[in-house]
Amino acid sequence: xxxxxxxxxxxxxxxxxxxxxxxxxxxxxxxxxxxxxxxxxxxxxxxxxxxxxxxxxxxxxxxxxxxxxxxxxxxxxxxxxxxxxxxxxxxxxxxxxxxxxxxxxxxxxxxxxxxxxxxxxxxxxxxxxxxxxxxxxxxxxxxxxxxxxxxxxxxxxxxxxxxxxxxxxxxxxxxxxxxxxxxxxxxxxxxxxxxxxxxxxxxxxxxxxxxxxxxxxxxxxxxxxxxxxxxxxxxxxxxxxxxxxxxxxxxxxxxxxxxxxxxxxxxxxxxxxxxxxxxxxxxxxxxxxxxxxxxxxxxxxxxxxxxxxxxxxxxxxxxxxxxxxxxxxxxxxxxxxxxxxxxxxxxxxxxxxxxxxxxxxxxxxxxxxxxxxxxxxxxxxxxxxxxxxxxxxxxxxxxxxxxxxxxxxxxxxxxxxxxxxxxxxxxxxxxxxxxxxxxxxxxxxxxxxxxxxxxxxxxxxxxxxxxxxxxxxxxxxxxxxxxxxxxxxxxxxxxxxxxxxxxxxxxxxxxxxxxxxxxxxxxxxxxxxxxxxxxxxxxxxxxxxxxxxxxxxxxxxxxxxxxxxxxxxxxxxxxxxxxxxxxxxxxxxxxxxxxxxxxxxx
Length: 602
Description:
Blueprint: H1 15-25, H2 30-44, E1 52-53, E2 59-60, E3 68-73, H3 78-92, E4 97-101, E5 115-121, H4 133-139, E6 151-157, H5 167-178, E7 182-183, E8 188-190, H6 195-212, H7 219-225, E9 240-249, E10 259-265, E11 278-282, H8 287-297, E12 304-307, E13 310-313, H9 314-320, H10 329-339, H11 342-347, H12 351-360, H13 363-369, H14 376-382, E14 389-392, H15 397-400, E15 403-409, E16 412-415, E17 418-421, H16 423-431, E18 437-443, E19 458-461, H17 468-480, E20 486-492, H18 495-498, H19 502-511, E21 516-521, H20 531-537, H21 539-547, E22 551-556, H22 561-576, H23 581-593, E23 597-601
Parallel strand pairs: 3-4, 3-5, 5-6, 6-7, 6-8, 19-20, 19-22, 20-21, 22-23
Antiparallel strand pairs: 1-2, 9-10, 9-18, 10-15, 11-14, 11-18, 12-13, 16-17
Keywords: Amino-acid biosynthesis, Cysteine biosynthesis, Electron transport, FAD, Flavoprotein, FMN, NADP, Oxidoreductase, Transport
Family: Belongs to the NADPH-dependent sulphite reductase flavoprotein subunit CysJ family. In the C-terminal section; belongs to the flavoprotein pyridine nucleotide cytochrome reductase family.
Subunit structure: Alpha(8)-beta(8). The alpha component is a flavoprotein, the beta component is a hemoprotein.
C-alpha cells in the first residue's frame, strides 16, 4: 500500500519545531500516533487558538478560517453543559469550533472573533456569573473594541423567580450589538426548564453557521475534537445513588439557625471531586406538603398524568418531578389567569409587588389563600420541573476517602402560623433517613481552586455556611503537607451557638496549620461586626499578604456579603496600596484574571 501524501501549502511549524515533533513521535505505533493526534487536537478545544484544520488537512493561521468560538459563562454548570453540547454539534457537522470557559477567555482579542456564540447564565439578581465578571467589565468599559467583523448569538439561562431574569444574556446581547457585532440569531432567554428551547436553538445555530462558514473538518478529526478526558459515568442527568451516613446539627439549641453537617457515602463508585467543587443533590418533595396542596385543589393524587412521555400517579409526579417550594411571578400569573382570582389579578399590573408576593408566598399558601380548582394536568403545566440544589463540598478526599461532606443551612420559616421548610435542606435534615439512598453528582468548579504551588499563602473569607469549602481546603493542605500560610475570616451571629466546626479550627490553629483566624460575631456586641469590617480593621496585614502573592477566596451570599466584601477589599487596596478607586478596581480585576481572587457565591 502506497503512503498517502497530504499537501500542506502553509507549514505552521518552524524547522526546529518540526524536528522536535519528529523526535517526540519516533518509535510510536499507529495506535499511539492516533491517540497523540486526538490529544493534540483536544488541546485546541481548551484554548482560543487561531489554527483551524480544513477539509483538505491544510492549516492556516488566517483569521478568515478562525474557529467558531463557543463561550461558556456558567454559574451552576448548566451553561457549560449546553456549551459543550453545542460545540459537539458543530464539530459533528464538520465545523471548526473552539469551546472556552469565560474565565479562561483572552477577551482582549475579542475583535479577532468572526463567529462568537455565548451561553450565559445569570447569578442572583441580574449579576454576571463569577467566571464572566472580567469579560463583562471589559465589554462595558471604554477599552472595548469595535466588533464590526463579528457575528454572534446568545443563549441566556435564568430563573423567573428572580426579577432580573436572564439579565447577563440580555446585557451581552445589547453590548455586542452596540459595539457593531451582527446577530446570527435572536437571543433566547430560557427558564430552569431550558432543555427544549436549547435543543431547538442548537439546531438553528448549526444550520445558520453551516450557511456562513465554509471551513469544515474531516470526520476523524471531528471525533478527536470532542473527546473529553474528564468524562465520568455520573452526571446531573445520570446521578450516583449514594447514601446518607451522617446528619449532625452543628449549631447549638440556643441558635435561631439550624445548620447540619451532612456526610454522603459514595461507596466504591469511583466518583471523585476536588476541594472547591460542589455536590448536586436531587431531592424529593415533602409528602405532607404534597397532600396539603392536593387537598386545597380538590385532587386525590391518584389521577394519572403524563410526565416525560410516561404515565404515573399525580402524587408521584409531585414528589419526584416538580418544584413545590419556590414560587415565581410566572406561576402567580398562571394561577391568576386560570382561576380569575381578583386579588391575584390585581397584582399582575404591579411588577415589583408581584415579584415580592411570589418571593414571600409559597405555592401551597397561594392556593390556600386563594382557593380554586385545577385539574391534574393543568396543575403540572403551572409548575416548574424540580432542579437539584448545589452545595459546596466541605471535605477533601485526601482525608475522607469515598465520602463527600456538606454544610447545610436548613431553611425554616412560617406562613400564617404554618411551618414551611426548604425543599432540599428539609429533605436532608428531616426526611432522609441514615443509610437512605440519595441521588448526587459532582459539579466541577475550576474557578475555585487552591493554588498549584503549595507554598502560596491563602486568605479564606467565608461567613455562615460559606465556611464549607475552606474546611475542604484545610483538609487538603494538611494532607498534602502544603507549607503556605493560611488565614481564615469567618462570621456568624453568635460565638457560643454559631461557630461552625469550632473544634476543628482550634485544632488547626494550635497545630500551626492555620496561621491566623479573625472572627466577626454580628450579634454579640452593641454594634454589629461583619467579615468586611475585619478586613478593613486588618487592612495593613491583608495588603502585605496580597503583596506576597496570597490567593483570596470568598464564599457565601452573593447579594449582600460578597458585594460588601469586595467593597472592603477595594478600600484596603486603595488605602494601603496608595491607589485611586479606579486603580484599585483595575488591580482587583487583575487578581481575578490571575486566579488570585476567586469567589464561590450564591
